[in-house]
Amino acid sequence: MVPMARVLRAEKARWRRDVSARIPWAGLVVGGGLGLLSSGASVSPGWTAVLAWLNPWAVFVGPMLAVLVVAVSLSGDRASRGGGTWWRPVARWQMDAAKSAISALFILMTTFGAVAGVLAVGTTHEAIATLPWARVAEVVATLWAGSVSIAAVIVRVGRRLGLLASLGIGAVWCVVGALAAESPFAFAVPPAWAVRATIPLFGTHSNGITLPPGSPLAQIDPLPWSLACIGFAVLVVTVRRREGGLPGVDHLTAVPAPVTHGEDRAPRIVLSRPSEAWQPRRAGREASSRSVARATLVALRRTPLWIVPLVTTASVLLITRWQPPTRVLQVVPLAVVPVVASVTPLIVWGRLRPAWRAVATRPVALVRPALAAATLTALVTSCSVVVPLLVLGAVGVDSTRVRVLVAMCALTGVMWTCVQLVLTIAAGRVVATAAGIIGTFISLLIGGSVLADRFWRWDPWSWGRLTEPTRVAFAVPVMIATTALSCLALGRVVRRVAAR
């Protein structure tokens, strides 16, 4: 058995060049944005009111970025086959414990960056001398403990489920935690523990509304709930069924063949000349647009892309069991549009990327299959937001308003689908996923509150909710221009990827 210290050193070395190690910078960016909102909105004086703007981080952004940190690292391990760890006598609990320990360190850095960003902007209207340092340390520790609990869950299940499924688990975790944080049964719901611990620290309900004077929720002690989060994470990582062998043995399905020495026994491989090997083949009949579209459809035939409209429609109908359709109508532009526009490009490019260099050798311009993929992705996104709106319109919602929302949500979804597709191809899944999480967070924070009256121009993720003629006249040309520019940029990024 390999000593635990060596496993930790190997995990640390793996994270040194991992793209997930850059995610903590997102904490500083989000924290700065929350600080700007706290200074631009009318809030009560004092540092408590400034710290209360970390409520969206505690409820949604922090846990989702923690999920992203772990899921991206696990995806890298899967791509590199564990970096050799799978073939060595390392127990699974050692790998999970090392992954959890290093992830917890980066999650702490992300949390500290978010709090520092809020406080840095808060110093513009509050005296730094009055900053309650003990309360700040308590906030950092509480937020970190809550994020570590969901990170431990992803460490256990993320290797099998992948990035998108892990993000789905994180989203469900956030929703359950926010809904159950103030219920009398919160002690039995682990996702609610982290949110409940932040209620007395921020002086707000789980939805961000300030607590009334004398509220019993303000008397909650955060320490037991934070310790419960840490204990839950430890249990998830360490408690497991008895293993029948070392992890590497499962991967070794056959004994390696002996190596033969000698030049006469080596297989002779004839390599083509460099001038013929790397240049794409352009001979032959140019593929038609119909064949390019058909090939794209065949490539995406067995992907989860086609169930996205069904999932969004079923989710909206499920919410109508607890909320009236008029309120559920706002869920589509605020949440469904940014989420779907972020997820569909990840599915499409995840399927097309392995074969993209082979596509470059075919007698077809690369921009044509790229535009076919973008068109198909935008079509699925449009169906995913239009169908729920039409269903809500059929159950009695104002038909005139539904028609306006259908047009605006479809256009917003197409714009962000093209932008996210370009970002996914050019910068990778991690950056695109982080951008999607932050965009969804901004849409819910600004578009779903009174902040929309002041900051709606800076929240293009929720432009699908606009119905006023003056605002629509501003947003529509911007979205059309952004979509056109994204399509132009798509040709450049796909050629760059094929040349790598």
From TrEMBL:
Q: Keywords, A to Z?
A: Membrane, Transmembrane, Transmembrane helix
Keyword Cell wall biogenesis/degradation listed? The answer is: no
The residues that cross the membrane are 57-76, 97-121, 133-154, 161-181, 222-239, 304-322, 328-349, 370-392, 404-423, 430-452, 472-494
Per the record's keyword annotation, is ATP-binding included, yes or no? Answer: no
The entry's protein name is ABC transporter permease
The beginning of the lineage is: Bacteria, Bacillati, Actinomycetota, Actinomycetes, Micrococcales
